[in-house]
Amino acid sequence: MEKVIEVKNLEKSYKKKKTKELVKAVDGVSFDVYRGEILGLLGPNGAGKTTTIKSICGLLKPNGGSVHINGFDSNKQRLKAVNYISAVLEGNRNIYWRLTVRENMEYFAGNRGISKKEIQGKIDELLNFFNLKQKEDELVSSLSRGMQQKLAIAVALLPDTDVVLLDEPTLGLDVETSYEVRSLLKRIVEEHGKTIIVSTHDMPVVQEVCDRTVIINGGKVVADEKVEDLIKLFETRAYCFTIGDELTNQQVTAIENHFPIVEINDKQINVTLEKEDDLYIIMDILKSEQTNIEKIDRTTVDFEQVFMQLVRGGDQHETTVASH
Ligand SMILES: Nc1ncnc2c1ncn2[C@@H]1O[C@H](COP(=O)(O)OP(=O)(O)OP(=O)(O)O)[C@@H](O)[C@H]1O
Questions:
Q1: In which family does this protein belong, per the annotation (predicted)?
Q2: 200 lines ligand 1 (CB under 6 A)
Q3: Would you kindly state where each structural domain of the chain is located, as residue ranges?
Q4: I need a labelling partner for 308 at 20 to 30 A (CA). Which of 49, 181, 192, 259 fits?
Q5: How many A from CA of 138 to the centre of ligand 1?
């Protein structure tokens, strides 16, 4: 597999305005991105995603480490490196609301040094691809949020760069449009041969669209795995206990304290264990009040549960995933 982006030991600190204290936003982040994949960059608020993305785009100068794009250092050979990347950062604010759909496309093509004449065919192709052709002469301000989002992505595809970086592409979209954007992302990779990095809080996007995910928490990578492998890994530890008696409040508290991912409904406990041995902890809690265990089944997990466990657990999980 051909490596398009290599992020190595990236470090970035910010100085707090009031106290001048240094905050480490990114603390030794490393990962690679391969041609033709959709990589999901995830993490809770403040994890360091934006800082990582801005460093990849060459918008931020890291304090340590490096980013290479197609072999070019995004810091030392910035212009060559960023030539391979286009990005939609901060939602759809990269488009002009007072211009029409087509005018936006022509304007941004011009910004990249592409003449109006040579880009017309490409604009038509993209407008058709994104189902925006019939809206080409309408002002962006009159479009729905979903259409604006699609236009923002279309604009990012104009310069035909190898890598497209998308920050929260489905934020604020209704279910139907979010579904449409998700399938468009897959088609952009398949039909246009792009590599996509998508930063998102939208777990269905990750489960459905991303080949691999890099999860950042507290400025560090806590998982770098294929999405399906992560789900499988956690599935081996997901159990459903059916019990004959109601739990006491102490038992509920004990279970919730031990296991961050748990759902207790009446006489069922759905729990994802951190390691197989944890099965005995939960059985001991049940036995402590002579709770009758009727059966124990393995259950399925979704990506959201995997994510929650990885970001809530801290270092313990880092070891677990790294050893996988
Ligand atoms: N310009 C800045 N000055 C000071 N601190 C900053 C600055 N930018 C980010 N930080 C801090 O660095 C840390 C990482 O921020 P970053 O924006 O990279 O996280 P994020 O994962 O993108 O979060 P979100 O999902 O909320 O956008 C946070 O603690 C944040 O407060």
A1: Belongs to the ABC transporter superfamily.
A2: no
A3: 3-225, 236-322
A4: 181
A5: 36
ipTM for the assembly: 0.96
By percentage, how much of the chain surpasses pLDDT 90?
56
Rounded distance from Cα 50 to ligand 1 centre (Å): 7
Ligand 1 site, residue 19, Cβ cutoff 6 A: no
Residues 202-246: tens digit of each pLDDT: 888 898 999 999 999 999 999 999 999 888 888 888 899 999 989
Nearest C-alpha to atom 11 of ligand 1 is from which residue? 25
CA of 26 to the centre of ligand 1 (A): 9
CATH topology of domain 3-225: Rossmann fold (3.40.50)
Determine if ligand 1 sits within 6 Å of the CB of residue 43.
yes
pLDDT at 139 over 90: yes
CA of 62 to the centre of ligand 1 (A): 14
Say how far apart CA 176 and CA 180 lie, in whole Å.
6
Identify the residue whose tokens are 């080409």: 136
The model's pLDDT over 288-321, given as tens digits with 9 standing for 90+, comes to 999 999 999 988 888 888 888 788 754 443 333 4
Could you tell me whether strands 212-217 and 38-42 are parallel, antiparallel, or unpaired per DSSP bridges? Answer: parallel
**C-alpha pair distances (Å), 205 with each of 48, 114, 302:** 20, 32, 12
Note the helical H segments in the chain.
Answer: 49-56, 78-82, 101-111, 116-129, 145-157, 175-192, 203-209, 227-235, 249-258, 278-287, 303-313, 315-322
CATH number among 3.30.70.100, 3.90.700.10, 3.40.50.800, 3.40.50.300, domain 236-322:
3.30.70.100
CA of 321 to the centre of ligand 1 (A): 25
**Gap between the Cα atoms of 144 and 123, Å rounded:** 20
